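Hi,

Apologies if this is the wrong queue. I'm a grad student, and the batch job for DUF1080 domain-containing protein from Mucilaginibacter gossypii produced an output file that my downstream script rejects. I'm not sure whether the problem is my script or the file. Here is the sequence I used:
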Amino acid sequence: MDVACVNPKGGFVGLAFHIRDAHHYETVYFRPGASGTINAIQYMPEKKAEFNWWDYEATKYQPKAIIPQNKWFHVKVVVRGSKMEVYADNAPKPAMVYTPLDPSLKSGEVGYWHGNCPKGAYKNLVVTAFN
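Support response: The file is valid. Your script probably expects a header line. Output copied below for reference.
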């Protein structure tokens, strides 16, 4: 998937997956304005009443990465079972390897996810099922 966030200060663009409904899903998103810091990539599950953002501030949820600003960049998110690998800007090695994913959200839809980025854009989303 290719994503862009024009004027990215404080903005983020990413992917929601295992979507059950508007209040139950998992996300991985990218903050171009935080490139080079541990806030550049973030994993977070959304579970309505059980959610506490502060529980997801540890470095295992937010790895340091270089994210291009004000231009398109390619990301690859591989979810297999309870493990997620995130590749940023065509890197050969994952910028983030996270496990375990939320066991209550094992399947569901996939969608775009963004915030504070009114000019966020997406293209070339490919979803492949693994057997």
